[in-house]
Task: structure prediction
Amino acid sequence: MDLVLFGPPGAGKGTQAVRIREQLDVPQISTGDMMRAARREGTPLGKKFDEYMSAGKLVPDALVLELMKERLSKPDAAKGAIFDGFPRTVAQAEALDELLAEMGRKIDQVVVLEVPVEDIVDRVTGRRSDPTSGQVYHVRYNPPPAGLEVVQRKDDTEEVVRKRFQEYEANTMPVLPHYDAKGLVKRVDGVGSLDEVTERIRAALGA
Ligand code: ADP
Ligand code: AMP
Result:
């Protein structure tokens, strides 16, 4: 099963991917998480990612596709994946089709989490995570356990999230017609409790 979880920054893609991955028995592949890991290692590539990420701009396709090629060659991704935050441009979507075709696979479903922009700013600026486990929380909607030291992403400011949303509208929304033409897209209301949204996704997937 190859599933694309699609939606604006802060829509809840990572949160929901973690909730459905066990049932689907495939890993979550988040290009954002992979880039943050490279940045933490301080590699030249990580530094390059940081230039774009800090400004809320998309990382160039060639760099993202290199990462994805390597990730898809890992054994845990042999049966499928939940793609979270990828593809973000039409060129990435076309390249993903080719990569999967070489493995005898294709995107089976695309779920779009729809969340209005003002909710997005609220969600992103309140996002915190556990640096050890990577578990994502929200200061109000999904508060971390008392005493847990959490951190905030440096691109989770109001200014940068508005820029990221503009990038989404300009470069990422045009990916949807690519999948719509194949009849793969299911739109899901992303506003509601975490459990409600998970149930809507399960219903959309028929899972
Ligand atoms: P994405 O992966 O799409 O960028 P996240 O899953 O990291 O989004 O969610 C962004 C923020 O919104 C996090 O702080 C998360 O805890 C919170 N969040 C996720 N789903 C919901 C929801 N249904 N209602 C309120 N807040 C949510
Ligand atoms: P995310 O963790 O999905 O919110 O992504 C954080 C940032 O990483 C984005 O604002 C981009 O700078 C970069 N990024 C993540 N995934 C991609 C992608 N598929 N294409 C281009 N840039 C990406």
In short: Residues 158-172 form the longest helix (15 residues). The chain has a mean pLDDT of 97. The pocket of adenosine monophosphate (ligand 2) is lined by residues 9, 31-32, 35, 52-53, 56-59, 64, 85-86, 88, 92, 164 (CB under 6 Å). Residues 2-205 form a domain with the Rossmann fold fold (CATH 3.40.50.300).
